[in-house]
């Protein structure tokens, strides 16, 4: 979600003012002055039923509570625990909110004291370090808008937070590996320099190589903090169905479409609007009606939105493309670069019966089917 820079600037200003008051040791004041305005900037309406205060969490024979439960379609999607402004965010507090997430089957949990905000994925591992998605110093809220936006209503609703969490986890792992292998990188730089300049400069090359290795890691870390550039439109790759056989087994949601619907698929790398009973399917396929009359497109699913309430929730889809929207339906977002078109599409069988509604099949059947009847 693109957060308002003006609203974030105002929040940072309020934070600075609050830090010089005598209210910093008071948790209630921290919530009212900092945490709740932040939630509003993130698109959560504190006056609606989507925000609950003091959510009771039952852990075994005891019970605790999370300060805020952020909800969509009656289901808690984010838990937020807030501490007083001058309270340090200890590992104990982090472990507690993560455990609440696990007990309540809520994946995304947040811990903040109004100065620092931590976002955790309660399903990512056992330790605080494994679960940490990102940590934001709220004084840098404008610079860290992309990270803060992960827990915006829009991001959670669209499923963007899941894709972003995967990217951040991959980046953290890459940085850790680079730091551990800095000596190997330095040695490779040295070999390249000596090969290009001659053995006479070996001593100088070693010193230069060490600096290059340090700068390479620092450059990677800096670049990793920048927001990803939007994907450029690309031609859909042509493949045979046998090319898909190397992918892990899994279910495929097969959606029917008129030929005009293909433009929507390519424009948004997504498909809408559908009602799904299996919101965790890994693969998507599209049946295109006349004149194609075949299963023609395939992609890997990155995320599926929560059931949408109104057209206003479709922030990334233009008004002219919202014609078939209805409340309760979802949008399927595909992983970038995975949309392909079959060289050997699956055509109608002897029954000549085209799919008229969403159906499920398997990747194995999709690869092997001689006609649609076999799906």
List the helices and strands and how they pair.
Layout: H1 5-19, H2 27-41, E1 51-59, E2 62-72, E3 75-82, H3 91-104, E4 108-112, E5 116-121, H4 128-131, E6 132-137, H5 145-148, H6 153-158, H7 160-180, H8 182-197, H9 202-224, E7 237-239, E8 251-257, H10 261-268, E9 270-274, E10 283-288, E11 294-304, E12 330-334, E13 340-347, E14 359-362, H11 363-368
Parallel strand pairs: 3-4, 7-13, 8-10
Antiparallel strand pairs: 1-2, 2-3, 4-5, 5-6, 8-14, 9-12, 10-11, 11-12, 11-13
In the CATH hierarchy, what is the architecture of the largest domain at level 2? Alpha-Beta Complex
CATH class group of the largest domain: Alpha Beta
Output the CATH topology of the largest domain. tt1808, chain A
Distance between the termini: 38 Å
Compute the number of strand runs: 14
**Can you tell me the residue ranges where pLDDT is under 50 for at least 5 consecutive residues?**
226-233
Share of residues in strands:
25-35%
**Helical segment tally?**
11
Describe the oligomeric state of these chains in a short phrase: single chain
Number of self-contained structural domains? 2
Main sheet specs: 8 strands, mixed
Mean pLDDT: 87
Order of helices and strands: HHEEEHEEHEHHHHHEEHEEEEEEH
Query: Share of helix among residues?
Result: 25-40%
Radius of gyration: 25 Å
